[in-house]
């Protein structure tokens, strides 16, 4: 491989390590367009995700500085999740993924000759 291809591969690998998988892009997209959410609100927005998986994904996104977790000291405890300023740099990536998904679905549904 040449150096430019190696650099591109490294960038893609890093991106996939941070936002790859079934749930992380969806969590980021929801927080991007709906804003701050509580855990239960996120869980309801992601049919099929288990509580443990959502907890894990949010922890990883927080560790990677993409999601901010804010705990309110009240009873009952309230925790909210929002995107960090750094995470908003993914807007174009997430929108492009969404657009491509619709185009790909249309392509797959086109009659094949």
From TrEMBL:
Keywords: DNA-binding, Transcription, Transcription regulation. Residues 9-109 form the HTH hxlR-type domain. GO terms for molecular function: DNA binding. PROSITE patterns: HTH_HXLR. InterPro entries: HTH_HxlR, WH-like_DNA-bd_sf, WH_DNA-bd_sf. It comes from the Bacteria. This is Helix-turn-helix transcriptional regulator. It comes from Bacillus mesophilum.
């Amino acid at each position: 491989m040449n150096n430019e291809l190696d650099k591109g591969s490294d960038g893609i690998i890093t991106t996939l390590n941070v936002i790859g998988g079934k749930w992380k892009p969806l969590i980021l997209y929801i927080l991007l367009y709906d804003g701050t959410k509580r855990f239960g609100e996120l869980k309801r927005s992601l049919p099929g995700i288990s509580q443990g998986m959502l907890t894990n994904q949010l922890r990883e996104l927080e560790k990677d500085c993409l999601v901010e977790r804010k705990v309110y000291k009240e009873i009952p405890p309230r925790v909210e999740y929002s995107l960090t300023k750094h995470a908003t740099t993914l807007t174009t990536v997430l929108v492009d993924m969404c657009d491509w998904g619709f185009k790909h679905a249309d392509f797959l549904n086109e009659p094949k000759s």
